[in-house]
Amino acid sequence: MTRAMRRPVMAATGALLLAATTAACGSGGGGEGEGDGTLNVWIMQGTNPSAEDFFADVATAFEEETGATLDVEFVEWADAHDRFVTSIAGGTTPDVAETGTTWTPEFADAGALASLDEYVDGAGVSDDLVEGLVEAGTYDGQLYGMPWYAGVRSLVYNTEMFEQSGVEPPTTWAELEEAAAALKKEYPDKIAVAVPGDAEFTVYPWVWGAGGEVATLDSDTWTSGLDSPEAQEGIDFWTGLATEGDYSSAGATTWRETDVLDAFAAGDVGMAVMGSWTPGAIVDANADMEGKFAAVPIPGQDGGMSPSVLGGSHLSMFETAEDKDLAFAFIEMMTTGEFAQQWGEQSGYFPGQVSLLEETLQSTDPLVAPFAQQFVEGGASVPVAPTYGAVQAKATTSTMMQSILAGDADVATASTAAAEEMTTVLNGSE
Amino acid sequence: MTLQLTETLPRLSRARAAVVRPWLLLAPALAILAVLLLWPLVRVFLFSLQDYGLREITTGEPSWIGLENYAEILATPELWTVVLPNTVGFAVLSVAGTVVFGTAVAVLLASLGTFWRTVTSSAIMAAWAMPAVTGTYVWVWIFDADRGVFNDALMALGLLDDPTNWFTNRWTFYAIVLLNVIHHGFPFVAVTVLAGLLGVPKEMLEAAEMDGAGAFRRFFLIIVPQLRQVFAVVIILSTIWDFKVFAQVYLMPGGAGSNRSVLNLGVWSYVESFGQNRYGFGSAIAVLLTLLLLVITAVYVRTVLAEEER
């Protein structure tokens, strides 16, 4: 009995203990005391199926160029945040690591990352980096995350359903609504457009597209713009497709992006906001979908493009790196030129260097070119604040979406509550 | 000095040895317990008095804020209007449901022959062995709005016109969690109570039967009083488990924080503390939860003991 009673505390303590007391054994590739020609690197597992071979090639090239040995450790995405925190606590961070774009400002704020500005300027690549990724990696006016690779969300549609309903891919919001209406008429039992309630990155394009902002920084204070008339107009359009047009489904109210993908792959969805990395997964899930879907950039309100979040990774240099020039030599090798391109091809993501994308932009593949166009011309970043992770943990935007879609609150009420909460959490004054 | 010690030793030792020896023998075990249990508890309590986040971890400089974390927890209106009612209400219903259903199954098992008892207990063990995560996904799948068998059945029977999303409503959400938790928790109760049932003296039951007591009277007047200890253990453990239900809520659609009306103590504390790197705040919640469970357990144990004495 006593043992069971203490369980809740033990469970809660687990993470703390990890962070506080066992830090020393938390990392296998610690950077301490290893300055003699070895570079310790953490890379996330699962992005590139042939990562091992890729890094074997990189290690050979790196040794040729610098004479130093490369020690790459693969880390699971799910454990990565805890491992970073643990290693930061114990001072055993790697020299260089892949950091998810929303983590970069968080670790920079904690004082764990080294600024990259002088190195990037020295290498002369500062004008050749994808803007949305630079924005996401810049904290307090300094670059802490070197753009490596990323994906972007655009509008993916079922070409068979579109042809059958006699509609063209939309280029404005009005056209999108017309297309949804035509799809619903032809396929009353299917979902014309999926409006998921638990997928914040599918919401922001409509906020930006209507001229609104998710949040803005003025001197030291963040203000969420989700309750501005423009943002509300965008949210109203997007949720209205479900609540007024009934073009979505009851289930979608609690859908995450993975649920959207499942339903789309099953052929049940006419159009949806989906990532540039999803086409492969769609065909994997249902081989019949091969060649039956395409993408267009998310339409702007009256034409053009609505900006969309770039999701991806930076390479960051940790303050514990003893030989920072060596560390940057690796970062440069990975994020520019041949290896960056190769990584992009193998993983299905876009490289963070603009000049590498030019070839991709010329592609006529209906599942590559529209994403690439959105990536270069219509990419944006969520608020670059160390506290944005907290906003995501509180599910502020998803709470707003779900309450609107479930009919519990109207757009004005829900967006005002969301803006208030986001402002409070972003400023860390809770 | 050495001489003196040697001289006094025989005199002292007899009196002291009786006191010291047990402690000496216990020392290794106590030391391990202190390191494994006491020190973490103390750490958690110390963290709960600090503003302990990523920055404090990096710099190693503690930021003591006294009881502010506790004040903030208790001053959160959400805690009183949503989180605690959900947690307590759910714990009461699921403990009652688990114990009643588990006992019913135990009675069934006790009355079965060896073959059917083996078959039934194997089926029960399968429910028990299923990890909470897997079980939760199965229930989510059953109640899925667009493709779940539950909605399909209701619509085929003409009871429902359009698919309904059962996860957006607080009551239907917790009805599903209740099914999930009872399904996962009753095997433990059934097996424990069965063990107790088999220990009830046959003579007493036969005597009662001869005196004309029906099955229900025999159960409530003879078996239940005999099993008071077993029920005490089962109820306390279930209460503790059901109080800190996490995965079964967190993994449900909308359960990870986007549906605020279904937050319970487990999910709320995770979202507010670990999700936001506020480890001090999370420790304070853990301390309060431990105290709460200690009080519940103490009250319950005292009631049982008091009845026993009477």
TrEMBL record, chain A:
One of its GO terms (molecular function) is maltose binding. The lineage of its organism: Bacteria, Bacillati, Actinomycetota, Actinomycetes, Micrococcales. This is Sugar ABC transporter substrate-binding protein. Belongs to the bacterial solute-binding protein 1 family. Residues 1-26 form the signal peptide. Keywords: Signal, Transport. Pfam families: SBP_bac_1. It comes from the Bacteria. Gene3D superfamilies: Periplasmic binding protein-like II. SUPFAM superfamilies: Periplasmic binding protein-like II. The keyword Transport applies. GO terms for cellular component: ATP-binding cassette (ABC) transporter complex, substrate-binding subunit-containing. GO terms for biological process: maltodextrin transmembrane transport; maltose transport.
UniProtKB/TrEMBL annotation, chain B:
The keyword rRNA-binding does not apply. InterPro entries: MetI-like (IPR000515), MetI-like_sf (IPR035906), UgpAE/MalFG_permease (IPR050809). Pfam families: BPD_transp_1. It is found in: Cell membrane. The chain crosses the membrane at residues 20-42, 88-110, 122-142, 171-198, 219-241, 279-301. GO terms for cellular component: plasma membrane. The keyword Lyase does not apply. GO terms for biological process: transmembrane transport. Residues 84-300 form the ABC transmembrane type-1 domain. Keywords: Cell membrane, Membrane, Transmembrane, Transmembrane helix, Transport. It is a multi-pass membrane protein. PANTHER family: BLL4140 PROTEIN (PTHR43227), DIACETYLCHITOBIOSE UPTAKE SYSTEM PERMEASE PROTEIN DASB (PTHR43227:SF8). Belongs to the binding-protein-dependent transport system permease family. This is Sugar ABC transporter permease.
